Amino acid sequence: MQKKYDYEILILGAGASGLFCASFLKNSNSAIIESNQTAGKKLQISGGGKCNLTNEFVTSQNYFGNSEFVDSVLRKYDQKKVLEFFKNRGVELVIRSQGQYFCTKSSNEILKVLGDETRSIKKYFDHKIINVEKKDDIFFVYTDKKVFKSQKIIVATGGLSYKIIGADEIGFKIASEFGHTITPLKPALVGFTVQKEQFWFKNLSGISFKVAMSVDKKKFEDELLFAHKGISGPVVLNASLYWEKGQIKIDFLPNIDLKKLLKNSKKQISSILPIPKRFIKEFLQSIELEDKSVDSLTQEDFKKLAIIKNYEFSPAGNFGYTKAEATRGGVNTDEIDQNTMQSKKINGLYFIGEVTDVTGELGGYNLQWAFSSGFVCAKSLAV
Ligand SMILES: Cc1cc2nc3c(=O)[nH]c(=O)nc-3n(C[C@H](O)[C@H](O)[C@H](O)COP(=O)(O)OP(=O)(O)OC[C@H]3O[C@@H](n4cnc5c(N)ncnc54)[C@H](O)[C@@H]3O)c2cc1C
Fold it and tell me: Quick check: CB of 169 below 6 Å from ligand 1?
């Protein structure tokens, strides 16, 4: 009798989550469909080509999303397991700052491992998925080349950023057509554009130094980079994940007691503050205070200067999906089973990776999510 379907499992998207998931499904009748000519293009450029693939410290607090759901999935395949997986396959990793694990050589090593692990799984490259339907318990996956029939499908099509390397809204379209809710989508891990009052930031393009940035209830301490269009750098990328419209706060002198620093000194303000002079000059201009010797500061002057530790402003917006490292929002995790990544609405439909409503901070958390969710899904399907 002729089979009603081509594959038992079809993975949509050969990115980090799809490939990792596939590597545990070697013995199944599966295939992967991918619009690019090669696998893992985003993975390849991740971490500046060295792929920050996880972090020494990973908890649900590093994610924007339902923390109970995130926690449950991470616990089933944590950072230690990810490290073990790649180290056992010969990848050398190194911790850079803040517990971030990077490849010592190149992210191509990660791609090679995943390629080797999924060698037995047929990959259809250059096939753009256009639509999915379910008829008589079979999924019909329509691509621009042909139609595939499968018993189960795993949506691993990622987020919306970096269209240039294949990002597409198809995963969100499939989910909503099958009755899922998509929580609001927006660029995350991205720089901020600024309003008129902060246009002086633009004069500082290229300067970077460590600051503390508070947004909502989160506080990050890391490098801030003044850019041509606004502000960027790790501290801003992290803040962008939690920013809704409204104010953020910057402490340009974190861990420094301004009062103590300025006590009994004859030095100029710009000589005593341990941050770039060019910044101090622009900052002083913006608060209308001249650069003078510290012992000549009046109480009023000091009050003005203290703004440097509590600078509040509202960004105008962000640099958009062309620059964002992630998409915040996605398929509502209340509608996904945390033990299997299967839809609670449609049998045989699964969601993994960035297409879900889980977004990690900068530091390897998004790839960790791609791997953890990919594993949990594969484990529930493994034959
Ligand atoms: C510049 C940059 C640097 C980053 N650096 C890091 C880092 O160092 N550490 C970290 O943790 N995270 C990093 N990220 C984020 C991380 O890369 C992603 O979160 C992760 O790759 C998501 O995995 P995924 O499998 O969900 O999606 P992806 O890896 O994006 O895979 C989705 C796949 O689906 C394919 N696809 C999409 N639509 C279709 C369609 N219609 N038909 C067929 N195929 C389709 C895409 O081509 C893609 O191959 C970075 C992101 C960017 C943009």
Answer: no
